[in-house]
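Document type: protein sequence-to-structure record

Subject area: structural biology

Format: plain text, a pair of labelled lines:
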Amino acid sequence: METIICNQLFKLKKENRTPFHMPGHKRNSFLPEDFSMDIRDLISMDITEIRDYDNLHHPEGIILESMEQLKEIYNTEKSWYLVNGSTVGILASISAVCQPGDEIIVARNCHRSVYNAIRLLHLNPLYIYPEYSREYDLFLDIREKQREDLGRLLEGHPRVKAVLITSPTYEGVVSDVAAIKEIIKPYGIPLIVDEAHGAHFIFHSAFPNSAVECGADLVIQSVHKTLPCFTQTALLHLCSDLVSEDRIREMLSVYETSSPSYLLLASAEYGVDYARNHPEKMQGYVDRLVDFRRKCGQLRHIRLFTPKNQDVFAYDQGKLVFTVKKTDGASLFRRLFEDFGIECEMEAASFCLAMTSVNDTAETFARLEEAVFAIDKELDADEEVASSPEEVPAGIYSLRHRRILPLWEAMDSEKKCIPWEESAGEIAAEYIFLYPPGVPVLVPGEKITKETVEKMKEYLYNGYNVPALSEGTVHVVSL
């Protein structure tokens, strides 16, 4: 057979692409200068659980020793390496604290993996809706109003076994985890925080406090997103005695591969060690961010999301959310790539997201600066683009949907496939989500509204990645 994937990956090195997307190593080597390696060296280190090399599912040697160091670095009760991404940490965490049929409170902007756990365990989800920015078409933080909603849900639903939130969001918005924990504490149930995008927080004071420092009981982090680690690497932190360590370990053995990659383990270990033991690198990264954001204040048409213009609790300055006008994020995304070779992480209807990390050099920041300022200058003559509409249309994530059937029942039901444009009034039998970020617009069991149909048609027309609707059809419950 032809090695199609391999051949394409070997071509990547020759392409003039500047990655402002994950993984956090940005395809730049972060190994010591005297550490030379080629692909044959990697193959020689790709092993299974041979003698003297320990076992991730029953660590007693080098893996246990490394995880003990990880625990000290993050100041947790116990920390685990994950080689199936944050997804396995989320599945294991929910399964460790919930039994089939339990209730769980989740923020509606949670990742699809949370909903998969709800399906597997037949849980009854109760939603809290974080603040929403119509201007940027993205979720913000969980504020006082939502915390009051959380308190009412806890008081009225004694069968709730856990609360799960996402902080930071995909776009970098951080909620007040400590305040949320104070509301939950009297009920004796755990707070699980999907902190997939916050593994770097503890390594510099310029970043928000990590959930591990703010009272969360279980915290999941994707080190590959913001630290120099291989794709798929993540961490799971147990931060209190409210959850059984044995139960977490048991659930990890259920969901995680029984043949974990030692190369991924080594990558996660080295990436964390790099961030911890090179404060000068982290300081250089922060300095580059501060300088870049300062310069972006001079832009006339392209706007950069900041905590000041949205009044959020905290924000990761390493996430660069650009807008040109309220519905032109995709255009900016494409211009950056096609004209300047800059590949951003995400395009949305109203913004373009560039992800940064400690491995972004002064040169890569300079390339992004040159591109953004060049595009901004071209917009000087375009008054329509420069102006802001009086009425900002509702974003896709601001729409709410009534749940008709439990998630698992809708997914296991008899289905029919119909054109998306004819689906208003039907019950969704599959997830409808934009990828990235993988947050469901519609969850199976929810009623499809006419407004959602029209909005998603706009997204499809403009070329957004909507996996379920790629062929213009959708699976709905056949009643």
About this structure: The two ends are 45 Å apart (CA to CA). Confidence is low (pLDDT under 50) at residues 384-392. The first strand starts at residue 18 and ends at 20. Residues 279-296 form the longest helix (18 residues).
